Description:
Elements: E1 28-34, E2 40-46, H1 51-54, E3 59-62
Amino acid sequence: MSPGSRTHRDDDAVTPDEQPTSAASGRVLARVETATDGHEECTLFPADADPDTLVTTWITAADDAFTALSEWR
């Protein structure tokens, strides 16, 4: 699964073998999901997380939490 993939269900866990080779300690990957009603969620998780750590080390933001970068400059 690639970062930003919208084709996999949440229960399709990301394993270290599926992560980009550039993933390193301290980096995060993002996965954006679009619901059937059009709402989006973005989940961030450690790039180097093993499957056991992955299930407990993540944060998800709903579409009403997003803001344009230009608004914060």
